[in-house]
Amino acid sequence: MAAADSPSVTLRRRDLCSRGIRLAGKMRSDVIDLLDTYVEQQGLDASVSVAVVEGVPAAAVERWDEQSGTQRLLENLAAYRTFRTLLAQMLEEQREQLGEADAGLGRALAAVLLQVSAFAYHLEELLRLESRGAPSEEEAGPPQPLHLGLFERKLRGLGVLRELAQWAVRSARDLRQLAKPSLGSSSAPSTAESP
Questions:
Q1: What is the full DSSP assignment across 28-90?
Q2: How far is CA 183 from the centre of its chain?
Q3: Which of 24, 56, 99, 144 maximizes the CB count within 10 A of its CB?
Q4: Which of 60, 69, 79 is nearest to 143 (CA)?
Q5: What is the four-CA torsion angle of 45, 148, 55, 105, rounded to 10 degrees?
Q6: What's the distance, Cα to Cα, between the start and end of the chain in Å?
């Protein structure tokens, strides 16, 4: 039996995946709440359509079922590292735009930024468990800050938050797939682990 298929590694992977799924669910809930606040505070219409935003990773993927667990983890990690940079930029822009006039939105952005950072670390842990170290931050290449007008920044922020909510859904799905017993493994989930 290979080291990656040992019972302790399998249990650790399932535990990390379960915690990751809970983290992704909490993050999605908080991002949805933040979206409502953001739309209200920025004076935007919630139904406004935002085109694909440059530098924002898209959660949609073709042939999702053909991806390996490692591919899924690497894509998730790259996305959350990008979101960490984008949210930090949004937080800075928010502080410049409103100062301390709206501390609530700033706190909510900071809380989601913290969750994104924690989730990226969680994904790195899973990659280490898979005997695949996480790529360095330099390889990912953070998006360069764009010089946009106020309205464009508001729309970009809306696009970032909407896509982050979609990534939280995708991440939970990816982690559920990774937590499934491998086809070559004879261990079936116990009734306590069944949904």
A1: HHHHHHHHHHHHHHHT--TT---PPPTTPPP---TTGGG--HHHHHHHHHHHHHHHHHHHHHH
A2: 27
A3: 24
A4: 79
A5: -50
A6: 27
